[in-house]
Amino acid sequence: MSLVAWKKPYLLQVMLDEEPENPREECDLFGRMVCWHRKYRLGDEHFFDSPNDFLKDLVLHTIPENIILDYVGSGKSHFVRLVSIGSHAPKKGLYETETVEEDGKPLHSGVRVECYDPYTKKWYAEDFFREEEKKELVGCLVDVLPNGDLLALAEKENAVLPLHLYDHCQLHLSASPFLGHAVHAEWDSGQVGWIYATAGEIQETYGNTSVENMEKAKKLLLSEVETYDYYLSGQCYGFRLYEDGEEIQTGWGYFGSFSEIVKEIAAEFLPESHRDMVENLKEMPDTRTYTLGYGNFVEELEGMGLAEEMEV
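The structure assignment produced for this chain is given below.
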């Protein structure tokens, strides 16, 4: 695709950038994209074998131990719980209290991690930890918590947004599901990962992690998702600008909708008196126009009977 507008002394050519640089590799980024897909390599490079591996790593490295203990101990998880054992139980209200004996003698005080099996609909003991084994206890909890709980914990300190891919004729990426918004989305779309920024990165960028700054961080992450969506769907453009027959400006790698891109180019490179020329862009019949020059375009326009109309 190549479109041309001519209004003396300027001629503007706008075309698809058929070899755009990957914005996840070439741009200065705020967030990180972690994705898994059997056909496509998406997002940023990472070494997590599964979403569960990623979520466990994020929680272990960004969420304080007390928040993890309180989450499970207060019953927020429907699949993992803590049961206190012995006379020195944790503070009242956090865990159930239970006395367990082994060979007729009470066990040392501590807590037992129990997990729920949805198939048998029963709780089973995972492991026992003494009171001083806090780090080991937290590690066990993170290891057995399901993805939904891990995500809920990760979101307490970090900005995390889901990534949904729509694969139908072309690729599209969004932080919102495509169901109800795209044809055959029930078969051709689904979540493929997340984009996130840690609390430390948000604090470094905005000064602190206030509610307002967390919202700013999420908006910035959304803008990166939008740019990557334009890249995946092929919505990237370049232009050449001529003045009195001489090429004076060229640019590539403009991601966005075509209508917005031509307005951006006009505002940046054309005088106000000529910005309206982008409203009269005409498609060239010969799409192989990367190597064509000013004279070729004028000749094409004259052959189409559009030269006089466009040079006014």
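Interim note for the steering committee: The chain is about 35% helix and 30% strand. The CA atoms of residues 28 and 224 lie 10 Å apart.
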